[in-house]
Specification:
7 helices; 0% strand; 120 residues
Length: 120
């Protein structure tokens, strides 16, 4: 299952387009955009504006909710346990320490996202 909002939206657009036996070129022409834009949306590389989503839903004769509808993968129980342990620990710390911890974690995860994304 795709990860990230862009992937879910793109998968839904591609599925609906294919079910209607339209090419990306045909959808792009109807929506008044480029084939590259449709391709990037379907591959989950970019997320369309609400205006473009509305045009796509009209072109595919579907409600916009069908494009935005998806189920998130379930959270692993081990992740919940670790989160609970982290929260319990943070409750024992001072507010300034919690703020600093948040900034550090945010920085670490931002760095991971920038440098360690899996190759597609």
């Amino acid at each position: 299952m795709p990860e990230g909002l862009e992937k879910y939206i793109g998968a839904n657009v591609a599925k609906a387009r294919k079910e209607r036996e339209l090419t990306q070129a045909q959808l792009a022409e109807t929506v008044n955009t480029t084939i590259e834009t449709i391709s990037r949306i379907e591959r989950g590389i970019s997320i369309p504006s609400l205006k473009t989503l509305e045009k796509i839903s009209k072109a595919l004769h579907i409600h916009i909710n069908e494009i935005l509808s998806f189920e998130c993968p379930p959270i692993k129980k081990s992740s919940v346990k670790e989160s609970e342990k982290l929260l319990a620990y943070l409750k024992t710390r001072k507010p300034a320490e919690i703020k600093m911890s948040y900034r550090i974690l945010r920085s670490v995860f931002d760095e991971i996202e920038r440098n360690y994304q899996p190759k597609k």
